């Protein structure tokens, strides 16, 4: 119920944005920040993140992404989604720092609700989610990948993935942490989260953050072949199994969703945290100069 209500809010927000949907022969639809190549006959869609320059998860991006995902969820012909970046090199730079810096509490609350919604929708999706990680994927970007059923990363040592929040002076919330612990195990998570480590593909594979590392030019073909394997499993048994594995963790967030929002708002509003974000943003700028 809570999920459905939040979804309606996002849909309303989406229509307020007034984006015109572009339909190309019923096989492709796009809003400004997400491109969907939908092969209805095959039952597979490729969702490409395209929020330049670095696919940060801004409020507008989250709204548009959730609307596109809902369209696919509502069409029973779609059984699988491949998530990838339209800009190879960066899968996603994670949560948009500008949504968490210098804004007011109401904005922080609205943003955090949308971040929660993204995680819940992806984590509990009945569809098969395969992540084709064709670039760097820190923090919220890594979280998106962690919600998927299978992760394939491009073999480029320049790319990294992990939950680096502590390096920014912020903290990965409990549900980021739980998703990570369930993927890599407690000790690895404890170590990586405290240090805010980002891992290149080979290490990410060793730790189980990703399931496969393949040459960069094969990420998409690999994602398609993995999807074919997963599609061969009957939906009802796969979905019941997925739900059995994931429901408890998602319910843990659902039951304390409002408290989690309040925690986020009071944490992110602190002067010391705003100062840390300021310093990090300055560092990002200086890196350029
Ligand atoms: C008690 C417990 C309570 C807990 C309560 C909760 C607490 C808060 C939890 C918050 C969880 C946060 C999760 C996150 O996802 S935080 C974001 C983490 N992301 C990063 O650290 C990535 C930062 N970016 C980079 O490292 C690089 O940009 C990247 C490697 C991704 C790409 O490099 P590239 O050289 O290609 O591009 P630039 O660095 O030049 O960047 C281009 C412009 O984009 C801006 N940028 C980059 N990342 C972000 C971002 N995440 N959000 C907003 N903007 C971003 C960058 O500043 C450049 O902008 P300008 O062109 O204007 O300079």
Small molecules held by this entry: ligand L4XM7KOE
3D shape: globular
| Biggest beta-sheet profile | 8 strands, mixed
The helix/strand class is alpha/beta
Distance between the termini: 49 Å
Strand fraction equals 15-25%
C-alpha-based Rg, rounded: 18 Å
**Low-confidence segments, ≥5 residues, pLDDT <50?**
1-26
- Count of distinct strands: 11
* Mean of all residue-level pLDDT scores: 92
Total count of helical runs of at least 4 residues: 11
Outline the structure in words.
This protein has 11 helices and 11 strands. Helix 5 (174-184) crosses helix 6. The strands form 2 sheets. It has an 8-stranded mixed beta sheet with strand order 1-2-3-4-5-7-9-11, with helices on both faces. 52% of the residues lie in helices and 16% in strands. It has helices spanning 2-17, 59-74, 105-123, 140-146, 174-184, 186-195, 201-207, 219-231, 235-255, 257-269, 271-288, and strands spanning 22-24, 28-30, 34-39, 44-49, 80-85, 89-90, 128-133, 135-138, 150-154, 161-162, 212-214. The radius of gyration is 18 Å and the shape is globular. With 289 residues, the chain is of the alpha/beta class. The site of ligand L4XM7KOE has 28 residues, from strand 8, helix 10 and helix 11.
Give structural attributes:
single chain, 289 residues, alpha/beta, 8-stranded mixed β-sheet, 3-stranded parallel β-sheet, 11 helices, 16% strand, globular, disordered N terminus, binds ligand L4XM7KOE, lipid metabolism, delta(3)-delta(2)-enoyl-CoA isomerase activity, ClpP/crotonase-like_dom_sf, Enoyl-CoA_hydra/iso
